[in-house]
Specification:
Elements (H helix, E strand, L loop, with lengths): L1 E2 L2 H21 L4 E5 L6 H14 L6 E5 L1 E4 L9 H8 L11 E2 L10 H14 L5 E4 L21 E4 L2 H11 L8 E4 L2 H5 L4 E5 L5 H9 L17 E6 L7
Parallel strand pairs: 1-10, 2-3, 2-6, 3-5, 6-9, 9-10
Antiparallel strand pairs: 4-8, 7-8
Helix pairs in contact: 1-2
Bound molecules: 2-amino-2-deoxy-6-O-phosphono-alpha-D-glucopyranose.
2-amino-2-deoxy-6-O-phosphono-alpha-D-glucopyranose binds next to loops.
Protein name: Glucosamine-6-phosphate deaminase
């Protein structure tokens, strides 16, 4: 779906998430949301905060699982995805912090594999993801599933692509400070979500959006795997859609 601008698109996506949360609350159920970081979803989170403050949308029945985290990463670091989520969403709504899950960037490396298995298990225990929000990196990554990721991959420790580290350099005050690894949900984990929305804004994303939507399905561009699912919608502004 192509919207005239990212603000209209973001408000629409936030309204859909709010509808899901309310429907689940009315039937006494939890809403299990897979969340993304990056610049792309910021306006969606801002609108969810507005809906909480001005229209009483409650997050008491919401369980969240974030896609990824840098490794290693301290949660209180400015660049951590914990900080990002707290500042953009969690600190401003009534979510129970016990219901928030973000991959742990502080683990000793030998404990990461077990942590990842537990992350998968926990998602399943909550009945799976009702909804997954995605952005897209210029390498075609979703979460941090870089080129070479398998379609059935699970949550795991990955090595970041050079282009991804260049794109993150500004946040870290230089590429040399960007971690070389991350923990990410797998392509297979994402695929199990009952509804997936990938958002992309601006002409900068147009070439990778074209590859993701129209290109040959290949591990070289992990977002092309989304072509295999019936539960995926790309939500774009005119810039990001300009090469389709
Ligand atoms: C980051 C995140 C991804 C995100 C992507 C795009 O590295 N790990 O989940 O979708 O890069 O970021 P942005 O939205 O800032 O363009």
């Amino acid at each position: 779906t192509v919207y005239p601008d990212q603000r209209t698109a973001s408000v629409t996506v936030a309204a859909r998430i709010a509808k899901l949360i309310k429907a689940k609350a009315e039937s006494g159920e939890k809403a299990v949301l897979g969340l993304a970081t990056g610049v792309t979803p910021i306006a969606v989170y801002a609108e969810l905060v507005r809906l909480h403050k001005e229209e009483g949308l409650s997050f008491k029945n919401v369980i969240t699982f974030n896609l990824d985290e840098y490794f290693p990463m301290q949660p209180n670091a400015a660049q951590s995805y914990v900080t990002f989520m707290n500042e953009n969403l969690f600190n401003h709504v009534d979510i129970d912090k016990n219901n928030v899950h973000i991959p742990d960037g502080t683990l000793p490396q030998e404990d990461v594999a077990e942590f990842c298995l537990n992350y998968e298990r926990l998602i399943e225990e909550y009945g799976g993801l009702d909804f997954q929000l995605l952005g897209i990196g210029r390498t075609g990554h979703i979460g941090f599933n870089e080129p070479g990721s398998a379609p059935n991959s699970g949550t795991r420790l990955v090595t970041l692509d050079d282009l991804t580290r260049s794109d993150a350099a500004r946040d870290f005050g230089g590429k040399q400070n960007v971690p070389t690894k991350a923990i990410t949900m797998g392509v297979g984990t994402i695929f199990k979500a009952r509804e997936i929305i990938l958002m992309a804004w601006s002409q900068k994303k147009a070439p990778i959006v074209k590859k993701a939507v129209e290109g040959e399905i290949s591990g070289e561009v992990p977002a092309t795997y989304l072509q295999l699912s019936d539960n995926v919608e790309f939500v774009l502004d005119e810039g990001a859609a300009s090469e389709l």
